[in-house]
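Appendix C reproduces, verbatim, an entry submitted by the partner laboratory led by Prof. M.T., so that reviewers can inspect both the input and the predicted structure.
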Amino acid sequence: MNQSYKLAIIKKISFLLLFGGSCFAQTDSISNLYHKKYDDKISVQVFALNTSNSFTIQYAKEKLDVEMLPNLKTTFNLGVQYDIIAFSFGFASEILAENKDNKGAKMRTFSFTALPGRWMQRVDYYYQKGITLKSPENSVYFQRLKTLKLGGNTSYFFNKRFSYAATSFQNAKQLKSAGTFAAMLSYYYTEINGENEPDIGENSYFFNVALSPTYYYNWVIGKNFLVSGGFSFGAGATVNTSEHKSSTIAMVQASSLVSLGYNSDRFYGGINNKILVSSHEETSNVTIDDTMNYSTIFVGYRFDAPSFLEREKQRIKKHF
């Protein structure tokens, strides 16, 4: 196989990954009375994201709760979406009052979302450095204590009249109110790294997998205004590994979503809040709650996509 032929195959595979979902999962989105897509637009948004991955360790016998709280919570973010693909990245800045006086603290975030048809694939990355351990009697800041979370979820939405993309106001708009049940499989790897802190001196690793029935509803309250909500409750398992032991334990998981905002053909903006809580009992005495919280205020604008992207997308459609 010559080099030029290999490059042609790689190019075709790359574009299939980007646009294949929209080709194979074509719906009557243009004539659909319930939602409208903006597949020929590039959506760009800036937003402030108040987010954190916090932990609560509950010691039943001692009747003691210890919280692990990151010292930076608010990040500046940039998000981009074209067709079925969206991604965003952000970092914490000391410009914000909440982030000041947090010596050595850092936070980085990244997310990727694909929405082919009624499927949704999301990947998240969170890095935190600078954690406070807080109990009712005491509070200690560990500058070198770090956490890392990498994972995401795969969902399928049963009602084609419902648009999950519309809940983020990026490249879709819900025209008539609709709700749906969904099935969500979530999976996250979490690392708590304390090896550089003399008072901790070790690392802990968690891998969570859970299956959760979910319900969402998009309520159109005006021509360009939408209120969205959703919740899930499920169960799964956690593999917990430290330097001293490894165990597999049961886990319950719940999540909620609330968003509201304005969405025209060009401009959009609003607020969005999501919470994901995982609770697992490590022993008969210790329970660990892992909470991810996202609170967002965002504004965005849709630009016409470059002609070469549209030409390539149409070319691929002709082959399928």
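The mean pLDDT is 81. Additional entries are available on request from the coordinating office.
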